[in-house]
Each structure stands twice: as C-alpha cells, then as structure tokens.
Design goal:
Blueprint: E1 5-8, H1 23-34, E2 38-42, H2 51-57, E3 62-64, E4 69-72, E5 75-79, H3 84-97, E6 101-104, E7 109-111, H4 117-126, E8 133-134, E9 146-150, H5 157-162, E10 166-172, E11 175-180, H6 185-196, E12 203-207, H7 213-218, E13 221-224, H8 230-235, E14 238-239, H9 247-254
Parallel strand pairs: 1-2, 1-12, 2-3, 7-8, 12-13, 13-14
Antiparallel strand pairs: 3-4, 4-5, 6-7, 6-9, 9-11, 10-11
C-alpha cells in the first residue's frame, strides 16, 4: 500500500465533538501506517494548533490553513499567502461593520479587537491552549495565510460582494474563514500529490465540514463522516459513522484499507 495516501480532516473527523482523539481512530491510523499507507492531515487549522496531535499520531505531512500552507516531512513545499492589499481592504471594511478579525500563519495568530464575545466563543470551541495575541496591525507584518472574520450568519455577504480576491467559508456560528480566491484543501493536496508523484486514484480523504467540499470532490475515494453536513455527504463517494461512533475505523474498513 506504499502508493496510497489518506488525508484526514481534524475537527469532527479525527477529533470527536469534545476535541478528543477516539481510541479507535488512533488505532486505525497507526494500523494504516504499519501497513505502509501514507497518512497526512488536511485541516483548516494552523500548524501550531495541532502539534500535539501530529506527535501522537507520528504524522509529519500536512495540508494546513485550508490548503494555504503545505508541509511534507516537516519541510514546507507550498505557501499561498493573503495579499497585503486585500487584508487592508478587509480590515477597513470590518471596522465599519464592527466585526473582529484574527490573522494566522503557521506559527501564531493575532486578533485586532480585545474581549469580543464572538472571538471568545469561536476560539474556545477549538480547545487550543494558545489564545490570539492582541495586535491590530499584525496583518502588515509577515505573511498571513488565513484570516478569521467574526460575524453572524449572512453578515459576511457584504464582504463577498466587495472583496472578490477572497473566498469566505463559514466554520462556526460566529466565524468565517477568509482564504485567497480559489484557495482550498484540494489545491494544497494537489501540490502535495504532485510532489509525491501519487496518482489521484490512490488517494483517500475524510472530512465533515464545508471547508472539505473541494477536497472530497477532488479525491476519488472520498469519505464523509456520519456527523458531516448534508452538502458534504452528497459530495462524498462514501459516508461512514459519526466520529463518536468509530467513524474513522468504519470508513477505512468501508474503502478496503483495513
């Protein structure tokens, strides 16, 4: 199985609803690795937020920040930063709407508004030890690969209408991912598979959220978790059990990898 690769989303896929790694998922991934299957992570998270999980699963290849920062065996092979001009326009518009922003790269995150309840609720849901640092002008320093816009459902519509250089994907009741136009997990995966010279027919992917749509469309052997949103289930070739009901294990059995 050395020519096969499996991509796993994190939240709602590898990690359950309490942000814990089920024992069955841990054992399934380790069994895959023992069989010689290449295992990678494909997530909207930044690298600093899932370092512990990578260590636990002995995974050193990942597509992070929704495809904008790709690492193979701890070496960066692809980066797709947000444009500074676009970030300035995004920041100016968000200030008129009183919507906070968080800016991310692989090493950390910064927030431009202090103490906003939307930021707290969304960030707390990730159960990450490191809180965003208050730095309103962080977007001007260094490359940023993703931003988080904090607003209620449909309040992102004015941004979509005015900022065509970005894609906006909701991941939380109070937050939307901001990506470079056309950026996605699928693009990051494509760059990685080109580097590894792996044919698409030997690729597998597991996901559950709206940011997994392009990935599950691109990967032929795609699996939606039982807890996935309906749109994602319709796009996937297979649907497995809920993440809390050994979904990873059952999905790998379903596609014949275990």
């Amino acid at each position: 199985m050395k020519d096969k690769i499996v991509f796993f989303d994190i939240d709602g896929t590898l990690l359950d609803h309490q942000k814990e790694l089920p024992q069955s998922a841990y054992e399934a991934v380790r069994e895959l690795q023992q069989k010689g299957c290449f295992v990678a992570i494909a997530t909207g998270r930044a690298a600093f937020t899932f370092e512990k999980l990578r260590e636990e699963l002995d995974i050193h290849t990942y597509v992070s920040l929704n495809g904008q920062y790709v690492v193979h065996e701890d070496e960066v092979i692809y980066k797709n930063p947000l444009s500074l001009e676009g970030l300035e326009q995004l920041t100016n518009l968000s200030q008129t709407q009183r919507h906070p922003l968080v800016f991310l790269n692989d090493e950390g995150w910064q927030v431009n508004v202090q103490g906003h309840p939307f930021v707290k609720q969304a960030v707390d849901s990730l159960k990450i030890d490191t809180a965003p640092v208050f730095d309103p002008e962080a977007y001007k320093r260094g490359e940023k690969y993703q931003a988080l816009l904090f607003c209620e459902n449909e309040e992102e519509l004015p941004y979509q209408e005015k900022l065509h250089q970005f894609d906006f994907i909701r991941w939380h009741e109070y937050s939307v991912d901001v990506l470079p136009k056309g950026g996605s997990k699928a693009l990051g995966i494509m760059k990685l598979m080109e580097a590894l010279n792996i044919d698409g027919k030997h690729a597998y992917a597991f996901g559950d959220g709206l940011n997994d749509r392009e990935m599950l469309e691109f990967i032929p052997n795609s699996v939606a978790m039982g807890n996935a949103v309906d749109e994602v289930k319709r796009l996937a070739k297979y649907v497995t059990e809920d993440v809390a009901e050994d979904g990873i294990y059952h999905g790998l059995k379903q596609v014949g990898l275990l």
